[in-house]
Amino acid sequence: MGKSKPTGRITIINPNSSEAVTKSIDEAVDPLRWSEGPVIDCLTLKEGPPGIETQCHVDGVVAPLSDLIRKEDATTDAFVIACFSDPGLHSAREITSSSVFGIAESAYSMALNLGEKFGVIAILRASVIRQQRYVRQLGLSERYAASLPLDTGVSGLESDTAGEHLLAVGQELIDSHGADVLILGCAGMARFRRRIAADLNVPVIDPCQAATIQAVASVRLATAA
User: Fold this and answer.
1) Please, what is the Cα angle at 164 between 158 and 165, to 5 degrees?
2) Judging by beta carbons within 10 Å of its beta carbon (0-12, 13-18, 19+), is residue 63 exposed, middle or buried?
3) Nearest to residue 177, comparing CAs of 121, 104, 102, 111?
4) What is the rounded CA–CA span in Å between residue 203 and residue 40?
5) 37-41, 149-153, 212-216: which range is least confident on average?
6) Taking Cα atoms as reference points, which of 160, 158, 169 lies closest to residue 200?
7) What is the model's pTM?
8) What is the CATH class of 105-206?
């Protein structure tokens, strides 16, 4: 008996123009690929900024992101928007009948199953403000420890010292804010998840993995005989 063909396709869109971030996302979700599972493709929004670091960046990618979703819609069963600000999430849900998962929303929902209070390692202080606002909008303030910034842009996550910095911020979230679950607040942090979880001994959520897990479940249930 031959091997079954993959069923369905998940399209993960990195809304910034960094191919390095897209590669990091692709590597992070690789454990979720298997021969009979949905194909998982990672795309880069070439019109996006090098990193989504301001509200203007978030707002500015909605139109080109929507155009890319329309382009890929006919061959996609679920989309993942791979930016922790969830840009264009509600617009995307209006223009496609496929499921659309934002990585922040997915990470927050996963965190509720793993502990009492989640903390977020953010990139910049402006990111903290957006995360605080989003948590309030989702009604999750009572389960939210805090967001603390690395004070570095997306490109800074490629430095040799980035891992140590993430560990220090994660430890502060645990010690000073009572977090018992940590969320990596940027898709570019994916390569540090295992190390942080091992060194700090708490669950650490990579948001792209969280959203892709939910997307895989959605596609599998929709295509199951």
Assistant:
1) 75
2) exposed
3) 121
4) 24
5) 149-153
6) 169
7) 0.91
8) alpha beta
